[in-house]
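quick q for whoever's on today - can somebody do inverse folding on this one?? i tried earlier but teh output was garbage lol. tokens:
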């Protein structure tokens, strides 16, 4: 394995440990020592790849966003587009334990982005890419005749992303009232209304 690949592997190992620790302890109570212990490496090794906790945290949120984008990119695009939109947006919902942990981390980072310009920029850029992807899917649905020609795809994409974020937030905050099956059903109902069913 090349040195570059080894460094990428180590950084990924540390980022995965960071997700685990932040999901369990929260951002404020996470230390480099916690992350190192969870990753099974020394604090010195963590500091070799990340000069500060802030640098590690920024890499961690990029890692969470990248994993979500990879899941979204793996959703096969096929007709009907309505089904594709549901499957795509489900990739951002906490439907598994792993995605539930990522949600807790994401919520911690969103809070941090309110006062950290670097994290705010990461969040803003990632959200813009997500919105473009959803807009593209909705335009595809219009071309296929599944979605009305008069639908404002930019506004509806923003509303759909906000709806999914809201489902995720309520799942994290209340659990039982917004379990995986409930949020999946709510998403399907929302998309049905959007598509005029």
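ok took a stab at it. sequence:
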């Amino acid at each position: 394995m090349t040195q570059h690949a080894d460094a990428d592997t180590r950084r990924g190992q540390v980022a995965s440990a960071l997700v685990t620790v932040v999901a369990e302890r929260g951002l404020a109570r996470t230390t480099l020592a916690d992350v190192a212990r969870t990753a099974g490496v020394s604090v010195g090794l963590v500091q070799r790849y990340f000069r500060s906790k802030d640098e590690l945290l920024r890499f961690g949120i990029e890692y969470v966003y990248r994993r979500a984008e990879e899941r979204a990119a793996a959703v096969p695009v096929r007709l009907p587009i309505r089904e594709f939109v549901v499957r795509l947006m489900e990739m951002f919902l906490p439907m598994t334990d792993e995605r539930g942990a990522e949600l807790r981390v994401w919520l911690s980072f969103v809070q941090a982005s309110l006062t950290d310009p670097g994290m705010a920029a990461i969040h803003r850029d990632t959200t813009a890419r997500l919105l473009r992807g959803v807009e593209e899917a909705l335009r595809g649905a219009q071309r296929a005749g599944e979605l009305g020609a008069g639908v404002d795809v930019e506004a509806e994409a923003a509303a759909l992303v906000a709806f999914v974020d809201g489902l995720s937030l309520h799942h994290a905050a209340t659990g039982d009232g917004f379990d995986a099956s409930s949020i999946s059903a709510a998403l399907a109902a929302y998309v049905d209304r959007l598509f005029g069913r």
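fwiw The two ends are 53 Å apart (CA to CA). also The first helix runs from residue 3 to 25. so keep that in mind when u check it
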